Amino acid sequence: MPPMNDDLDLSRPLRALKRFTWLVLLLSLAAGAVTYLLSSRQTPVYQAKTLILSAGSQTSNPSVGNTVVSPPPLPAGAIEGALQSENVLGVVRRRLAEVPELTRAQRIVLADRLAQDIASGRGRVFDVSGQQDIYGNGTYTLSATHRDPVVAARLANLAADALVDWDTERGLVKVNAAINGLRTRLADVERRLAAAGPVVGTPTSLQQTLLAQRANRLDALNNLTALRETVVGSLSVVAPAAVPLKPVAPKPLRNAVLVGGFVLLLLSALLVLWSSVNRMVASDADLKFLNLRLLGEVPRVRLLRRGQSLLVALRQGRWSDSVAFLAAGVKSVLPKGERRPPVLLVTSLFSGDGKSNISAAIADARVASGDRVLLIDADLRRPSQASIWQAGAQTAEWVDLPGAVPFPGEESRDLLGALDRPVTAQARRLRDNLHLLAPAPGMHAQTQAHLPAERFREAMTQWGAGYDLIVVDGPPALAVADPLVLAPHAAGVLLVLEAGRASVASVQRVLDALLLVNANVLGVALNKVNPRGQVARYGYGYARRSTPAAAPKPESRVL
């Protein structure tokens, strides 16, 4: 058999998305609905905005005594940094008493938040945005958020006033420095005049010079003092904050859409990742990836009443064609005319995949088509054929197997005894042309029992002459080594997989082991397939249009 195909397979994630679309959408809608409910119950938050103008040439660059006294243009980021500083937020904290809508407890909480904003440099109450050119000209929007719209407007105006006052103080720095400098020089002139003596009559040349300097500096000092009262900064409030009418948060619909979309994308990504990592065999496309042929699919079977046989449900029910299709597929690929006897070994990966029911169904279908079939229950640890065939496996008459001539009292009526003494082997006659050879009762307790490979080969050669097909119900291949021991002596191996249960890696591991022992793997029978998801399959989808209305929900049991 060719090795596993390593090409990129996108069909698996697409099938996984298609299969779980309803679940992903349901979870996304649920997440969006929960988000909407939680958001709608949150306290609304209002945001008030004020517009501030920055004019870099507002003071016209005046100079007094050869000293430029206008403030420099605000550099980029200066307003944002000043808004989160003690110079602005500290003033707002001290002026919170001017907001009558705040209670004392609310003022304390808000003051603490402003203190945290100052310490961290990150604003939660105030924010400013805008831009300016290289000359410091531009506009800024200062916003304040609060649960009370009136408080939000008052806070925005307080912060704007504090920011303008800070800028004004920045503009007075040079003016105050110039005034202090002139006062120092004026005091020096007064000291020198005092040292020159009192002015009597005509002043001396030195006194005239000092008097002229004093007059000039007094004039400059008066001009700067007058300028200090008129100097403003680069910032001015253009539009004070108005009371907002609509809250900015929460937005239940927007939050619900965002959360729902995020959950949808997250679940879809996780589903694609899961389908890529956990590569499960669920359809014929997965088998093509393993270069395996699909011989048939058997759906889940619901029994109409308690105690009903699965074989009866398959034989007479609406799914009978699926078993017939599988049996015909096995017959078509089983080698003919070779030295090996017509032995079909049926195995699975795990217990519970339904390989025993598939074995019984294939044997029953082949007998119905006119073949002579021997059914061997070779699962020593968990024999199941006796319970599948119910009373027929306990009360049916005994028949001699081909080549056996037992004396009375020396019959070998269990599997190990028949393999040990083929000439005395007998089997139960379940129906015309169908015989069953099973382990002795209580054999499942002997967990260390194994089938002898050489005796099995000899017995199959002897018994194969009297049957058209020998169906061997073997144990799971991943549980014990018996299937690997028996596979070389069978004409073909049928692998039964429960749809969506076995991973690609585990199937590949079993295939590699079967290839090592030179087994002829015929293909795969997918069991417990969901018929609703496979309505196009021949056998159990073909007759669905003529199926009458569904009966009341019966007890569920799967093949």
UniProtKB/TrEMBL annotation:
Keyword Transmembrane helix among UniProt keywords: yes
Transmembrane segments: 20-39, 256-277
PANTHER family per record: CAPSULAR EXOPOLYSACCHARIDE FAMILY (PTHR32309:SF31), TYROSINE-PROTEIN KINASE (PTHR32309)
Keyword ATP-binding applies: yes
UniProt domain Polysaccharide chain length determinant N-terminal: residue ranges: 6-92
Keywords recorded for this protein, A-Z: ATP-binding, Cell membrane, Membrane, Nucleotide-binding, Plasmid, Transmembrane, Transmembrane helix
Taxonomic superkingdom: Bacteria
Primary localization class, coarse: membrane
One Pfam family of this chain: CbiA
Gene3D superfamilies in UniProt: P-loop containing nucleotide triphosphate hydrolases (3.40.50.300)
Identification of the protein by name: ExoP
Family matches, as InterPro entries: Bact_polysacc_biosynth/exp, CobQ/CobB/MinD/ParA_Nub-bd_dom, LPS_length_determ_N, P-loop_NTPase, Wzc-like_C
Domain CobQ/CobB/MinD/ParA nucleotide binding: 345-533
Subcellular location: Cell membrane
Membrane topology reported for the UniProt record: Multi-pass membrane protein
